[in-house]
Amino acid sequence: MGILNVTPDSFSDGGKYTDVDHALSRAQELVSAGADILDIGGESSRPGAEPLPEKEERARVLPVLKAIRLEFSVPISVDTVKASVAGAALESGADMINDISGLRFDAKMARVVRDFDVPVVIMHIRGTPKNMQKNPVYKNLPGEILDFLDESRQMALQAGISRDKIIVDPGIGFGKLWFQNYQILGELAALKMLQSPILIGPSRKSFLGKVLNIAPDLRVEGTLVANAIGILNGANIIRVHDVKEAKKAAQIADMFAGKMAELQHRQPACVNI
C-alpha cells in the first residue's frame, strides 16, 4: 500500500503533494514502483494534529482521487475518520476505507462501509491524534490492542459489514511509547486470532528515528527491517512511503515466511510412546 498524503502537515511528506498535478505525478511513481493499493489521506494524524474540518478534507481529497481514478486502475483506499468524507470518496471511485479510529470517531462510518460493501481497515488508537502521545500506558499492550480491535470488528459485523471485508491494524505510532512499537511487531502474530488480514504502517516513523537518530526521509532501511519483522509475524499488507524498496524486501520476507511455514507443516507430530 503506497502512501499519498495530500496534506500540508504530515510528519514525513507534508506539503509535497497538495495540488492535483503533484499528487498525480506521485501516484504514477507509486504505481510504477509496484504499489498494489494507493492510500490517499487528507487529514494529518501525526501526534498533536488538530482535527480538520470536513469541508477542507473533502477539498483536499476528492479532486486528487478523481484525477487518479481517471488515470489508474489500481485500487484506491482513502484514509479518513469521517463518514461523510468516506461516502463522497467511495462515490468518486475509491475502493476501500482506512479508518485510524477503528470505527470509533464517527458512528455513521460503519454504515457507510456496509452500504458500499467495500473493505475497511480498522486501526487501534489510544485517544485522538491530538492527545494520543500524552499518556500511552498499558497494563497488557498486546491484549489491550487485541481487545480493542475485536470490539471494533464486532461493531463492523453488527453493522452488516462482511467478515471478509475487515482488515485490522495494530496502530504503530498511534498512542504508543517508542519501544512499544517494537513489541507490537514482535508479537504481531497474536492478532491472527481475529482471523482478518493484518496491515502495519511503520514507514519512517519516530520509533525508528529513536534508534537511528536520523530524519524521517532517511529511515528507509529501518522501515524495511520493521516491515520484514512484521511480515514474518503475520502482516499481510504494509503501508509504505518507499514502495520500490519495500516491495523487494517484502518479496524476500514473504519467501522466508512461506518456507518456514512449509517446513513447520512437514515436521512430524510428536508422539509419546
Describe the structure.
By secondary structure, the protein is α/β, with parallel strands linked by helices. The protein has one domain (2-266): Dihydropteroate synthase-like (TIM Barrel, Alpha-Beta Barrel). The chain contains nine helices and eight strands. A six-stranded parallel β-sheet has the order 1-2-3-4-5-6, covered by helices on one side. Helix 3 runs parallel beside helix 4 (109-116) and helix 6 (178-186) crosses helix 7. The model is unreliable at 267-273 (pLDDT under 50).
> H/E series, N to C?
EHEHEHEHEHEHEHHEH
Helix coverage percent of residues? 40-55%
| Radius of gyration computed on alpha carbons | 18 Å
Tell me the span between the first and last alpha carbons.
50 Å
Number of spatially distinct domains: 1
Count all strands and give the number.
8
- Looking at the structure, the CATH topology is TIM Barrel
Mean pLDDT: 92
Supply the CATH class: Alpha Beta
Q: What is the tally of helical segments?
A: 9
The CATH architecture term is Alpha-Beta Barrel
Spatial sequence of strands, sheet with the most strands = 1-2-3-4-5-6
Overall spatial form: globular
